[in-house]
Amino acid sequence: MQIDIKHDQDRQRFVAQLDGKEANLQYSQTDEKTLDYKSTFVPEEYREKGIGERIVLEALGFARDNGYEVIPSCPFVRHVLEEHSEYDDVVARK
């Protein structure tokens, strides 16, 4: 499934439109170099298709590319990080 993930910086989220429905990752900026990835949501009929993981990976890539550290408050974000140790460098160690 081809999905296009957009960063909606004004609303602090990463979003994928899925046939009129929306999957997203919500975050907040806690300081000038730290983002708190708070929650992810994928509509039920689209779960178990890798969409949530793709959104999280996009968000982690954004953090890395822009010099941010990430607080993985969302349990799903923590799960993705366990599966993708290549992003350990962006996890805030505070």
Tally of DSSP β-strands: 5
- Our estimate of the beta-strand percent is 25-35%
> And the CATH topology?
Aminopeptidase
What is the helix fraction of residues, given as a range?
25-40%
Q: H/E series, N to C? A: EEEEHEH
Number of domains: 1
Number of helices: 2
Taking the sheet with the most strands, its summary is: 5 strands, mixed
The end-to-end distance, rounded to whole angstroms, is 37 Å
**CATH class category name:** Alpha Beta
Structural class: alpha+beta
CATH superfamily: Gcn5-related N-acetyltransferase (GNAT)
Radius of gyration from CA coordinates: 13 Å
Query: Which strands sit side by side, in order, in the main sheet?
Result: 1-2-3-4-5
Low-confidence stretches: none
Mean pLDDT: 96
Give the oligomer, counting copies of the same chain as homo and different chains as hetero.
single chain
Q: What CATH architecture do you see?
A: 3-Layer(aba) Sandwich
Coarse morphology: globular
Which helices and strands occur, and which strands form pairs?
Layout: E1 5-8, E2 13-18, E3 21-31, E4 34-41, H1 51-65, E5 69-71, H2 75-83
Parallel strand pairs: 4-5
Antiparallel strand pairs: 1-2, 2-3, 3-4
Structure, described:
This protein has 94 residues and is α+β, with helices and mostly antiparallel strands. The chain has one domain: Gcn5-related N-acetyltransferase (GNAT) (Aminopeptidase). It is built from 2 helices and 5 strands; from the N terminus they run ββββαβα. The protein has helices at residues 51-65, 75-83, and strands at residues 5-8, 13-18, 21-31, 34-41, 69-71. Strands 1-2-3-4-5 form a 5-stranded mixed β-sheet. The model has no long low-confidence stretch (mean pLDDT 96).
